[in-house]
Design brief:
Blueprint lengths: L6 H18 L4 H35 L8 H25 L11 E7 L3 H21 L3 E9 L5 E9 L3 H5 L4 E7 L10 E11 L13 E6 L15 E6 L4 E5 L5 H27 L16 E6 L4 E4 L4 E3 L2 H5 L5 H22 L9
Parallel strand pairs: 4-9
Antiparallel strand pairs: 1-3, 1-5, 2-3, 4-5, 6-7, 7-8, 9-10, 10-11
Helix pairs in contact: 1-2, 2-3
Amino acid sequence: MSLAESARIESILKRHAELQAALAAGAQGEEFVRLSREYAELEPVAQKARELRAALAEADDLRSMLDDPELGAVAGAELRELEERIAHLERELQLLLLPRDAADEKSVILEIRAGTGGEEAALFAADLFRMYQRYAQTRGWRVEVLSASETERGGYKEIIAAIKGKGAYARLKYESGVHRVQRVPETEAGGRIHTSAATVAVLPEAEDVDIHIDEKDLRIDVFRASGAGGQHVNTTDSAVRITHIPTGIVVSQQSERSQHKNKARAMQVLRARIFERERRRQMEERAAARRGQIGSGDRSERIRTYNFPQGRVTDHRINLTLYKLDEVLAGEALDEIIEPLIAEEQARLLAAQAEEGGGTGEENA
């Protein structure tokens, strides 16, 4: 039986028709929002299934003409082309039915921290941030630095930024992990290659509707911001440290002169961290169903190496090497790594789905 004729597709088409009728009947308020969201989620699947069904029906018609002495040759040629299109449509429909990460459409909180390697690691952290900043620009996303701890040479011990744009998490979630750099530091007189590292964490930005934080679960401390001196040092207690008591998560912000703005930014990061913590707990509970999924693994694992002497970037998860170091760090060729990672994840999910005999087609993480 073709996928287009399966019970699962039949159920989706039936539900799609029911939603269409309910919306046409004049659903109002919250019910309209709920039905519209479900309809929008099913629409791509229903449309692709109808397209595949039409192609299958056309193929049957062509097969009935194969024995015709006048039309058989033409029908055979058209059938071969149509069968290729049917295979392509079935693949597209399979991908649409894969479990979907509900956070994929969200903006992200990006956290980059220098690891082993001292000042060189901090400079590498700055290189990574500029790479994501440029990549975001190519996709029309907006980048806002929430906090940064800079070094004297222009590196970052830590930098946290919000990247605003639809679908940012779907692509950047593959960047979470340890990034390693191999290069000769500018300060190295002997020209020896050093290895340094930085950690990247990509969190889906949580909204108030995603997670509720009770005020009584927060401890908020204010203190005087530290700085390098000069007129921009805060002279009032405007820095904010927020502790979420149930989880022990602590976020500090001191980049703004206003205590109110620092608190708002700290809450933005805190929501994302708590949201991600809950998502990871749920994913661990479903580990058997999602074993091997890229992007949900241990962040301590080294995922990528940037080798400057050889001009190459290697992603160790899929054994992919590109000799395009400059283009990757410029954000221009980052998709050449992300796209294969997405394809690998889709292949794994398809294999898991085949073993299980299908799935729900949607997963709320």
